[in-house]
Amino acid sequence: MNSKISSLVGFAFLLTTLSSGMTPPVMAAAEALSPVFQPQLKDEGGGEYRLKFKDLPGEGDRLRLQGLLTETNLEFPKPRSWSPNKVKAEIHFRASSALVKGSFLTLQVNGTNVGSVPLNVGEGKVQKVAFDIPADVIKDFNEVKLRAQQKIDEECIDPMDPTLWTEILPESSFSFNYELAPVALDFSQYPYPFLDNLSLQPNQIAYLQPKAIAADWLTSASRLQASVARLANFQPLQTRVVVSTDAVKGEESLVIIGTAQQQPDLAKLKLPFTLKGHQWLDEAGKPIAPESGILMLTTTPNGQAPVLVATGNGAEGVAKATQFLAQSRDRDLATSHALIVDDLPAATTPDRRDWPRHLPADSRFQLKDLTLQETRDFEDVTVRGAFSSPVAFDFRALPDDRFLPGSQMKLAYSYGPQVNPRTSTVEVLLDGVAIAGEDLSDQKGGIRETLNVELPADRITPTSKLQVAFRLKPGEAGACRRTSDDHLWGTLHGETTFNLKRDTVVSLPDLQLMHVGFPFGAPQDLSDTVVVVPDQPSATDLETLLVVSDRLGRLSRAEGLELVAQRSADLTEAQRQQANLIAIGTQENFPLAEQLPQQSLKLRGANVRQWGEANGQIHSIRDQQGVISEMISPWNRERVILSLSAQSEAGLQHIQNVFREDDLFFQLQSDTALVTPKVANAKLTPGDIDEDDYELKFLNQQKTRQIEKVNPVRKVSYWMQGNWMTVPIGLLMVGLGSYGLSSGYLYKSSPKSTQKSGDQEERK
After folding, report:
1. CA neighbor of 631 nearest in space, from 530, 702, 708
2. What is this structure's pTM?
3. Rounded distance between C-alpha atoms, residue 320 and residue 312, angstroms
4. Distance CA 99, CA 95 (A)
5. 3-state DSSP call for residue 573?
C-alpha cells in the first residue's frame, strides 16, 4: 500500500484484512459509525433556487438555433445535499415570424422528453413557456437539449434559409424546490461536504487561526487550500480566517489544523479520539506517536457546520495529516470519519515542462494525447448538419515555448456522402482565425482524409484554442431542388498529428504569464515556490496567503503538492537562492523589505509610491490601493519575486479580490499592477465582485531578462533580436576593426613597405 492508514472500521473489516494477508491497520477505540451532519435551510418552509441560463458555465448571452432541425446542449449540476421536490424550466424565446405550422421547440432533460411548444405563433415577439420536470429525472449532473424543428414552407424548404431561426434568451431558467438531505461525515466522500463541486453557489471555508502562527501551520494550510482548489476546479471558493469555533457561519465549513496545544478549541468538539491534556490517545490509552498524523470529521458544538480536523501530537504528524489530503494517490484510500496516517511516501516531483493541461514537451504527438479534462483524453468527434459547431480543443503552449517556422499539423478527418462538393469545406482555425482549409470534393464522402497545415509560429500562446470546422452544404436534389441537412456529417480523428519546432525561451518579469501560473507552476507540484508572510501575520495576511494558494492550486495539476509558506524570519538562504518567492504584507509589516533592491516599487509613507531612487516619487490620493509587482530575484537571476503589498489591510483585501475573481485576474499584464476600487471605502463582498468594481493600472518598471535554454547559435540569434538597436553599431565597429587590420596587413606586405624596410636594414 502507498501509505499506512489507521481507519476507524468495524471488526468485519479487520477479519477481511487478516484473511487477505495484508498488514492490519492500527485499530482505535472509537465508535465505528460515521457522524451525520444535517444541513440547515435559512427558512423552515423549504429551499428554493432559480438558476438562469446566463449563469451556466460556458454560456453566453443567448443561444441561437439556426436551420431546419437543430439543437443546443446545456449542462448544470445539482448540489449533492439537495433532494428536489419540484423542478421547473421556464424558457424565454423569440422565433422567426416566417415559421409556419409544424415548427416546434422541444426540451429534453437527461434523455427524457419534457415537453414541446409550437414556434409559429410568436410573430417575432418574446414568448415564455414553462415545463414541469419530473424530480426523479434530475441527477447530480444534468444534460439538457433544446431542439428546434423549423419550417417556412409546407413542401419546399431550403435549410440554408436565414429565416429559419429561434433564439433562447438568457432570462430562461431552471427553478428548484428542494429539501436538504443529511450527510454522513466520511472520508470516502472527501472533499464533500467541505467542498461540493456540484454547488450552484460559492463554497465557503473558514480556517481556525492557531494561538501562535508557525511555519508548519502556514505550509499545511496553504497546501490544503491549494489541493481543495484543485478539486473545486471551476467552482469558486470563499475563504476566511476565524479565531473561534463560535464565529463559524451556518453555510461555512470549518478547518482546524494544528496540535491540541496550538488549537485549544479542539477540546470543545466531540471527537473519536481521546484528548488528555494536550495528547491524543489511542485505543489502549497510550499517546499516539508524534510523527503520526490524525484526521477526524465532526461538527461544530452547535451542529450547524461540518469540521475537518488535521492534528497530531507533534508538528510532523500535523504536516503528514494535511499532506495526506493533498496527495491524490493517497487520499483515495481514505474511509470512515477518523484516520491515523503512519507512513506517507512523498509524491514524485514532475519535470518542469510536464504540464498536464498544456502541449506535451515532445515535439511529435497526436491529438488523442491531449488531455481535455481531468481524466478524459481526446476521442474522435462527429458533428452533423449544415450549422454544426466547430470541434474545439485547447492547444495551450508551455509558457516558455517559443515557436519557430515549420511547425506542422496533419489533420485527419472523414466526411459523409451527398455533400455539395462546390460549397463544402473543412477549415482549421487558431483562436478564431482561419489558417487553413480544403474542399470536400468527393460527393461520395471521404474516409481518413488528411490535410497538412502550417501552424503560424507567432500565434500559438499558453491560452490558444484550435478549432476544426466542417462547413457542410447539401447537394441539390428533389422536386424543388432542395434537400435536408440532417444526413451531413464530419469527423475529426484523434490520430491527427503534430510536429512542432520550438525553443525554450521566456522573458521575465511578466504578470501576464501568471494567467497560467508561470513561473510558480514549474514544476506543477509548486515545489519551487515559497510564500513569505510577516513574522507576526495578521488575519488579512493569512487570508491573502490562502487566496493566493487557491489560485496557484487551480493553475497547476500534479499528484502531490510541495508549496511552502514561511514567516520572513524563517526564510532560509537556500529558499532565497532556489525558489520563486511571493511576499505578502502591508507597508509597516512587509517581509523582505530591506532585502529588495532599490529599483523595485516600494511604499514610502502615506499616499506615496516610489520607483527607485532616481525616478522621483509618484503620489496617490487613495491609501486603499493594492500593488502587485513582479521582479527578477536578486539572489537568482532565473527566479522571480512577486510582491503583494499595500499601505493598509484594505489594499490587501483588494489584491485578494483580484486573485479570487477570474475577470480581474486574467487582466494582469506588464510587471506592476495598481489595484484601486472605483468607489472609496466600498464594501465589496466576494462572489458579487466584477471587473467594473476596480480600476487596474499597469506599469513597466523592471528591465526584462530573457531566460533561454537553446544552442549557442540560436542564443546569439535571440540576443540580436532583443538588442537590434546595437547591431548596426556592432557591425560598424567590426567593419572598422576589420578595415584597420586589413589596411595594416596590406601596408606591411606592399613592395614600397618592403623596400623601405630593406633600406633601413642596409643602413644598419
Report:
1. 702
2. 0.84
3. 9
4. 8
5. helix
